Automatic annotation (TrEMBL):
Binding site for substrate: 9, 41, 73, 87
Encoding gene, per UniProt annotation: coaD
Gene Ontology biological process terms in this record: coenzyme A biosynthetic process
Keyword vocabulary terms for this entry: ATP-binding, Coenzyme A biosynthesis, Cytoplasm, Magnesium, Nucleotide-binding, Nucleotidyltransferase, Transferase
Metabolic or biological pathway, per its Swiss-Prot or TrEMBL entry: Cofactor biosynthesis; coenzyme A biosynthesis; CoA from (R)-pantothenate: step 4/5
Superkingdom of the organism of origin: Bacteria
Catalyzed reactions per annotation: (R)-4'-phosphopantetheine + ATP + H(+) = 3'-dephospho-CoA + diphosphate
Compartments where found: Cytoplasm
Organism: Pseudosporangium ferrugineum
Role, per record: Reversibly transfers an adenylyl group from ATP to 4'-phosphopantetheine, yielding dephospho-CoA (dPCoA) and pyrophosphate.
HAMAP family per UniProt: PPAT_bact
Source organism phylogeny: Bacteria, Bacillati, Actinomycetota, Actinomycetes, Micromonosporales
Family: Belongs to the bacterial CoaD family.
Molecular-function GO terms, alphabetical: ATP binding; pantetheine-phosphate adenylyltransferase activity
Name of the protein in its database record: Phosphopantetheine adenylyltransferase
Length: 159
């Protein structure tokens, strides 16, 4: 079975993330969306909330599952039986950082990284940008699934 991991914080999941996951799902037998638990960062949504939103957003994909992990990505890949990491690239600046990570990962464990360019519709999109737009009263509905947009509005406009 060809299995790949799409890692990230997904705080929250965007349509850009889902584009990469869906395209990866056409290339691999199984795609595992790995939600990084980073105790040194406080996200807008808890890990459980992020996993719930991702599971809901990917429910229509028959070969995608969502799991959380902490520690090294390569250890998570090994535990999941995945030899490939899929990373979406929005711009050249993403490539500089991701290339270093990919080289470290292959050196540590032999896990390959495949870079997938984002759909031009989402080339500017990030979770941080979406949160800022919603926080200041803007409409981010075309950049996230509807239920994610509703959660963002509820969370960010209650303060």
């Amino acid at each position: 079975m060809r299995r790949a991991v799409c890692p990230g914080s997904f705080d929250p999941v965007t349509n850009g993330h889902l584009d990469i996951v869906g395209r990866a799902g056409r290339l691999f037998d199984e795609v595992i969306v790995g939600v990084l638990i980073n105790h040194s960062k406080t996200g807008l949504f808890t890990i459980d909330e992020r996993i719930d939103m991702l599971r809901q957003a990917t429910a229509g994909y028959g070969n995608v599952r969502v799991e959380s992990f902490h520690g090294l990505l390569v250890d998570f890949c090994r535990a999941q039986g995945a030899a490939v990491v899929i990373k979406g690239l929005r711009a050249v600046s993403d490539f500089d950082y991701e290339l270093q990570m990919a080289q470290m990962n292959i050196g540590l464990s032999g896990v390959e990284t495949l870079f997938m360019p984002t759909n031009p519709l989402y080339s500017f999109l990030s979770s941080s940008l979406v949160k800022d737009v919603v926080k200041w009263g803007g409409d981010a509905s075309s950049y996230v699934p509807d239920f994610v947009g509703e959660r963002l509005v509820t969370r960010l406009r209650q303060n």
